């Protein structure tokens, strides 16, 4: 039935073309061709695996770098907090010392004024009572 519908020449033509292609594949599929195909498959397989390894390694490296940066940032923040606290306490201590020195300076000024007043009073007393007796 197939012979009558399509035609025996057409079927024979396709069979001939198929046979030629089969024969060409059979002739060219030598050990050298098999070796080349195997090497190409191996290179493709190794490339895929190496890409997976590189992606995994870079992801792990990126994660590790991120962790290192986070821990370093946390340590730096802690150090800054400690330094700020120390500086605040030193500032408070220095402010107390400045206040005490200002109070001492004011007291010294008052005492100097009193000493100057007493010195003038003594000079007046000396001129009034002691120098008149000569």
From TrEMBL:
Signal peptide: none annotated. Residues 1-130 form the Fzo/mitofusin HR2 domain. The keyword Membrane applies. GO terms for cellular component: mitochondrial outer membrane. One of its GO terms (biological process) is mitochondrial fusion. Residues 84-121 form a coiled coil. Its main location: membrane. It is found in: Membrane. The chain crosses the membrane at residues 6-24. InterPro entries: Fzo/mitofusin_HR2, Mitofusin_fam. The keyword Membrane applies. It comes from the Eukaryota. Keywords: Coiled coil, GTP-binding, Hydrolase, Membrane, Nucleotide-binding, Transmembrane, Transmembrane helix. GO terms for molecular function: GTP binding; GTPase activity. This is Fzo/mitofusin HR2 domain-containing protein. It comes from Homalodisca liturata.
